[in-house]
What we know:
It is a single chain. The chain is α/β, with parallel strands linked by helices. The protein has a single domain, classed as Uracil-DNA Glycosylase, subunit E, CATH 3.40.470. Helices cover 34% and strands 18% of the residues. The protein contains nine helices and nine strands. The chain has helices at residues 27-31, 50-58, 68-80, 112-118, 136-146, 186-191, 193-201, 207-220, 223-226; strands spanning 2-5, 18-21, 83-85, 89-94, 105-109, 124-127, 152-155, 160-165, 172-177. The strands form two sheets. A six-stranded mixed sheet has the order 3-2-6-9-8-7. The chain has a three-stranded antiparallel sheet with strand order 1-4-5, with helices on one face. Strand 8 (160-165) and strand 9 form a beta hairpin. Helix 2 (50-58) crosses helix 8 (207-220). The longest helix is centred in the C-terminal third of the chain and has 14 residues, at 207-220. The mean pLDDT is 95.
Amino acid sequence: MFNHTHPYKPFNIENATKLIVGTLPPPRFTTGALKLGDVNFSYGSIDGQLWPILNAIFDANLVFETTQQAITQRRSLLIKNNIGICDIVAAAKREKIDASDIGMQDVTLRKLIEVLEAHPKVDTLLFTGGNSKNGPEYFFRRLLKENDLKLEVISDVVPRIHSFQLPISTRLIYTVSLTAPSGAANRAVGSLQAYKEMKAAFPNKNTIDFRIDQYRPYFTQQKSDWLPNRS
């Protein structure tokens, strides 16, 4: 059984207003056996799509290589835009050594509720996936249940938006369940009506373009700009 531990501490949560919340990077980031082109930082897999998406959104000219420059660029982008990273899984066991969420067993979660209580600037969690088993929203719902809390629906259209109130500070936190930035999620993307409408209007656009358009407001705008009007 492989002990898959998270190799990175939460980043920039002291000054962030938004936290990116995922699960675990691929096992090679735990063992240090990186691929050529991997960046030794959160979401640094050369096969992943989060940094290409953010690169396009922020016009950041990121390099995609296994260098300190690549790490520094990503850290600077997050700090400049008040974005932090705090993945919800601290460790898990695996029988098969791969990056699938569904293959995680005996999962240990980070104490994300306590993290939020300790960092009052954070008001939004950006989940890199929805409520499918072992996804970030799935595990967050488990944490909430353990604390006698629950998510309230704000919008049930993908990307789904919820809110909840912290138990001590009673601060209201919003969550956005983004379409996962992975190749494995492309089939699900293709079934979305919004994706079909985009392809009909812009045949040359692809699944990454779809995610760029989906992610942009939540990474660049204030809550008041993307929260639906509930009046």
